[in-house]
Write a structure and sequence with these properties.
By secondary structure, the chain is mainly α. The protein is built from 15 helices and no strands. Helix 5 crosses helix 6, helix 7 runs antiparallel to helix 8 and helix 13 packs antiparallel against helix 14.
């Protein structure tokens, strides 16, 4: 945190494009530290409007501000995403489901399927675009109560290496666990999250945007541990998360839930 703050303090005196480049690196770094206000403040130095839009969407999602996510998607990402953020296509489409924009999510999947069908050279059946389709369709299945469909889609997906879309990988794990929980199989839900949280380096080290995804997986695992009476296991994870969130904003949603729950249990 101290290193990030030291570099951020230098941004106002840097040439505009240099400051913009550093700000693009600092924003996800602050998000990894769960300092979301500082992450958003970095966007003031960014020259590229598409990045500011995407970063605002990402931070709103991490704040769990569904209305803000929906507003950004409806105004800035009306046509799914600008070409410059194609590398983030999966997370944008996934967040359509988060925001309750299910019709648009179905349309986005249809567009991806059409592109795949018209491609001259088909890749491996679990190529990047196909994997994104699977994740969003799995999310949609959970949102629409089709839990058998969700498990059939997401379980094979999570067994595959998915380095190109690891921004949505933790979301897939959480959705699969939700589907198993809704089907009454808490043991399988826990195993999904336990296995996913064990891939910390892949999730956090693979992309600067994924620290939040890993925290979500761990929090959900702790919640399920408590649900099945594994209180000590839950306490271990909760203490770990609170330590990691020490420099997080006080209103960070995961931190708030953990602090409030700890207070109620005293």
């Amino acid at each position: 945190m101290a290193l990030a703050e030291s570099l951020a303090a230098e941004l106002p005196g840097m040439p505009v494009l240099v400051a913009s480049g550093f700000a693009i690196q600092l924003s996800p770094l602050y998000s990894t530290l769960s300092a979301l206000r500082r992450a958003q403040e970095m966007d003031a130095f960014v020259e590229q409007p598409w990045w500011r839009d995407f970063d605002a969407l990402r931070v709103a999602g991490e704040r769990e501000d569904r209305e803000a996510v929906r507003t950004i998607l409806e105004h800035e990402f009306r046509e799914y995403e600008p070409p410059q953020v194609s590398q983030f296509a999966g997370i944008v489409k996934s967040m359509l489901v988060d925001a309750g924009l299910l019709k648009r999510a179905h349309e986005a999947v249809a567009v991806l399927k059409s592109r795949n069908a018209s491609a001259k050279n088909h890749e491996h059946p679990l190529a990047h675009t196909t994997r994104l389709i699977i994740v969003v369709e799995g999310q949609l299945a959970v949102a629409e109560g089709q839990y058998d469909t969700a498990t059939a889609l997401l379980e094979p997906y999570l067994e595959q290496p998915a380095f190109q879309e690891n921004m949505v990988w933790p979301r897939a794990a959480i959705m699969l666990a939700e589907a198993w929980e809704q089907k009454g199989d808490l043991a399988r839900a826990i195993e999904v999250l336990r296995a996913a949280s064990g891939r910390r380096f892949f999730l956090v080290g693979g992309t600067p945007f994924n620290g939040h995804g890993w925290l979500n997986v761990r929090e959900r695992l702790a919640q399920l541990y408590r649900k099945v009476g594994r209180v000590n296991d839950a306490k271990t994870i909760e203490a770990e998360l609170l330590a990691l969130l020490e420099v997080a904003d006080d209103d960070h949603p995961i931190k708030q839930r953990l602090v409030q729950a700890r207070t109620l249990r005293k």
